[in-house]
Amino acid sequence: MWVDNKRPLYLTHRTKPRMMVATNWRPEKGKDLRPFPWGCTVWLARSAGDDLATRLFRFLIDHFEPAFGSISTEEDSRAKHFVIWQDRLGRAEQYMGLDVGRFVSVRTDYGREVLPGVYWITYFGLGVKRIVGERNLERLEADKVERLGDGYLVRAYPSVSAAGTEVARQSEGNIVDRLGREHFFDKAQVDIEALKTDEVTAARVEQQIQEIRAARKS
Questions:
Q1: Structural contact between residues 152 and 145, judged by C-beta atoms closer than 8 angstroms
Q2: Segment 135-177, tens digit of pLDDT
Q3: Which segments within the chain are labelled E, that is strand?
Q4: Of all helices (H) and strands (E), which one includes residue 179?
Q5: Which is it for the CA torsion 65, 68, 69, 74, positive or negative?
Q6: Which tens digit of pLDDT belongs to each residue from 186-199?
Q7: For residue 185, which of 93, 87, 75, 70 has the smallest C-alpha distance?
């Protein structure tokens, strides 16, 4: 149904452990030029624990054979990918760097292909091993590294409960350094000025807002 109707699929597990699942595909925007144009996101209650989260992750990898995957906390994801800025239209915010592909920030092309990052558990699938090099993954030193399907499952530290801590950041940073920092998204490199709406666009948007308000009053 998801493929035939070209609509995202949403699932909810209402009993414990609570869980929401969403597929992300944007056919309404026309041909998607990203090398991997869809994703599956699961929001799993922390009460599920590390073991169940890992089992679910492995299940998804077995069935979807993804290019890339990860497990982390919402707070950790926001810290690494949520960008906030102020422009002529006011406060703006968005997640960035969650896709596999060229690191592009609106008008700025950083000229390289990157992966989202390294997290508590990160999966490097067949489609992205070439970016960091399979030999580097084979020799990687981490809390745990194992082959899974056509890729590698890398655990940076024993439990997701440590995500966002200084120890976790250090462990993730060590893996990034060994695989090549240039291969991963870095929020600090986002060009905030390039994200800001220019004066002409801001004026056009403001005019459209006024026209919509006027139409509603009439």
A1: yes
A2: 999 999 999 999 999 999 999 999 999 999 999 999 999 999 9
A3: 10-13, 19-24, 39-44, 68-71, 82-87, 90-95, 101-105, 108-114, 121-124, 144-148, 151-155
A4: helix 166-179
A5: negative
A6: 998 888 877 776 66
A7: 70
| List of residues 6+ apart from 171 with CB closer than 8 A | 142, 143, 156, 157
Percent of the chain residues past pLDDT 90, beyond the cut:
52
Exposed, middle or buried: residue 112 (CB in 10 Å: 0-12, 13-18, 19+)?
exposed
Give first-to-last CA distance, the chain, whole Å: 41
Q: Which two tokens stand for residue 26?
A: 């944007």
The helix/strand/coil state of 97 is: coil
- The whole-model pTM stands at 0.83
As given in the structure block, the two tokens for residue 102 are 């060229």
pLDDT for 23 equals 83
Nearest to 88 by CA among 204, 209, 197: 197
